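Dear colleagues,

As part of the handover before I leave the project, I'm documenting each prediction I ran so the next person doesn't have to rerun anything. This entry is a single chain, and its sequence is reproduced below.
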Amino acid sequence: MTNQTPFTASGFTPSDQDTQSLLEWFAQYDTHVQRNETDAMADMALFPIIVMTNDSAGDCVTQEWDRETFVQAMAMNTDGADPSDMELKNEREPVFLNSDLAIVVTNATVTTNGEQQHMRYVDIMAKKDGQWRFKSMIQAGWGDMLKEYLSA
């Protein structure tokens, strides 16, 4: 997707290197996910982060997480999972707003114990000190869990 039409005031069009650096960031993050390395995952965020989802009633649930909340949520999500039994396949489509801001849509397939789960989610990415960090995570369907377990 390196031939995007520049829609920003700066006229930025990402190069192959821009796209590659962002996709390499995600490859590293995926490695941490597959190893249940929640602290390493947290190291790749720009806290506080914004998490957005919806609940079973269809209402938007938005929370602001600090590092501690992120680690708690990710640990709950992977609690008891054997990372060696998980296969993760992601197809990502980055959309650059400029060289330092991007939105990445991911279509993921997670296979555990022979069962597949398909997900689509969005990460809002920003650079801090020249390094990509995620600033926001958006995915449908987690609102009931967030309200129950992570409400302040």
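The chain has one domain: 16-149. The helical segments are 16-34, 38-42, 67-78, 143-149.

All the best with the project,
I.
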